[in-house]
Amino acid sequence: MGMFWAGILVAGWLGLVLVVAELIHAGFPNAKEWSRKVVHIGAGQVILIAYALGVPTSWGIVAAAIAGVITLLSHWVPIFPSISGVGRQSWGTFFYAVSIGTLMALFWDRLPEVVVLGILVMAWGDGLAALVGIHWGQHPLLRTGKSWEGTLTMFWVSTLVAALSLSPIAAVELLWIAPLVGLGATLLELIAWRGIDNLTVPIGSALLGYGLLSLS
């Protein structure tokens, strides 16, 4: 598939994610967190499309830069309310775009699986952990503002994502690499504030995965 059609596919997927999120945002005013997590989880799957189609590094960086500009604008102007409402005190979606661009610049040409790991840990791990914590979290985790339910979800989902992401290039090593990546991602998410986890979790998880792979 040519790069033109790859771009169309990526744009089409992101458009679908935004439409679904906006419909949830408009139809269920009390479920704003769900619409944001649809964007959070759905947007992360773009990295799988890029991986499958072999999108060039430069394309990925440019796309991440464009997404970053859009999310910055949406912080002040309600372009897409499902991304971030006006005045919402979080730069998480912007950091998300920065993380994708940074990881593609660092690893895409030599070890794209590490990029997939970092982005999907953020998308699925953090996304599901937040939903579980908000809706079903009953047991506070010390004074972190988190719950045990959400934190354990982060660990197990991140561990699974790490194992699946690295499976094309590793085998036995996953038995010890994946849980360590899951633990690292969970700790980074625990200490994050105001959306900074969208920067520290994907980049930290990718760097940890890369380092552990190098050791093995």
Architecture overview:
With 216 residues, the chain is mainly alpha-helical. It has one domain (3-215). The chain is 75% helix and 0% strand. The chain has helices at 3-27, 32-44, 46-53, 57-76, 92-107, 112-136, 148-166, 174-190, 197-215. Helix 5 runs parallel beside helix 9, helix 6 (112-136) packs antiparallel against helix 7 (148-166) and helix 6 crosses helix 9. It is globular and about 50 Å long. The relative contact order is 0.12. The mean pLDDT is 85.
Outline the low-pLDDT stretches: none
Can you write the helix and strand succession as a string? HHHHHHHHH
Helix content: over 70%
Structural class: mainly alpha
Most strands sheet: none
Strand content: under 5%
Terminal CA distance reads: 35 Å
Mean pLDDT: 85
Approximate shape: globular
Radius of gyration: 17 Å
Number of strands: 0
Number of domains: 1
Number of helices: 9
